[in-house]
Amino acid sequence: MPQFDKIKIPADGKRIAWKGDALEIPDYPIIPVIEGDGIGPDIMRAARRVLDAAVKKIYGGLKKIAWMDIYAGDSAAARYAGNVLPDETVAAIQYYHVSLKGPLTTPVGGGFRSLNVSLRQMMDLYACVRPVNYFAGVPSPVRAPQKMDVVIFRENTEDVYAGIEWAEGSPEAVKVIQFLKDTFGTSIRIDSGIGIKPISITGTKRLVRMAIQYAIKHDRPSVTIVHKGNIMKFTEGAFRDWGYEVAREEFADQTITEDELWSKHDSKIPSGKIVIKDRIADSMLQQILTRTDEYDVIATPNLNGDYLSDACAAQVGGLGLAPGANIGDKVALFEATHGTAPKYANQDKVNPSSVLLSGVMMFEHLGWQEAADAVVAAVGKTIRQKKVTYDLARLMGDIDPLKTSEYATAIIANIT
Ligand code: NAP
Fold it and tell me: What are the pocket residues of ligand 1 if the criterion is a CB atom closer than 6 Å to any ligand atom?
């Protein structure tokens, strides 16, 4: 067990542990929580109130989250002599296995690109999981937003977002350009910046495996591999091929390909089977608009997933309602998908739904499905009552917005 300096372990909680292949969830699980910078304290306070109220309502006193504050970003700098990502924060996330996190400021000109990316990479949280579905009453730019119901599994550790790049004119960029020219005869303009896009069998297969396992567990009819393999054959194209390989080699009894669906099953999905299909990324971005309900679980390399996650979220009313999680083999970190919106910090104004619904995903991960369902139903009812924060109020028209804390209170009142 790690020794902590500033982190206080809640006396009434117990650690979530792994027992074989399954998480062992105590009734009072210790959940480390990073409040976050900017609007983080406002939204996390509201989310914790709602999550606690749901657990109390659903389980009486039998279950309870034992929140354990841990620190990153501004809250860490104040306590750890300027260190924005203390070792004990990382140790706590690893040791306790399931954590919740608010948004963190990306330090400008620091030694790393982003605290969020650092956390994912340090703990090998290789899948960024983003469910996107619609709450009735939320203003949407499309005619049938209710058709959107996807869960995106976006690879988190590879592709261009692995961050291997060199600035134009840097000795490294010049050296790489020269090396490629001397060794392979390539001609890259000398005034180019260079980025490396690695996609591996290991990174691809574990991501697609997680997506297929999710589809099986949640009775989803299809998994779509989204790639740009027509242009990038040995990275994106390989992602598609290795994705199909996982399905064929590890899930032969549970999956069929789209080709087989047409050629052998007269386009009717046989019971108990999941269809594995693939789409080229540009086509997928139009398909998700025009044939929204044909897509369920999506597995994609990092950059496609980045575009697709936000495009899907936009169809159902934007990022304010979009939850997310970063998941590895042992550790899961649930987090708001938006940033710190610093201009709204400490105004009790913004929408806490993203981090709240990330908490719902966390409940599902713990197997607390009844509490998860209760929060989703209460959020839906609150929005239908037009009790919303400023962001949705301004889109809905003539509505007085609620404060963050008032919105949380309204949701709590709707938990049944
Ligand atoms: P942002 O913080 O997401 O804010 C952009 C705009 O989105 C806000 O001005 C606001 O729009 C709207 N918004 C964001 N969160 C909202 C909420 N909870 N409720 C209602 N509206 C919300 O993006 P940013 O300004 O580009 O980034 C600020 C900082 O956050 C940066 O340091 C960035 O690196 C960091 N960031 C962190 C994460 C993360 O921790 N995962 C993710 C993204 C960005 P209006 O102005 O129109 O009201």
Answer: 39, 43, 103-106, 116, 320, 335, 338-341, 350-351, 354, 391
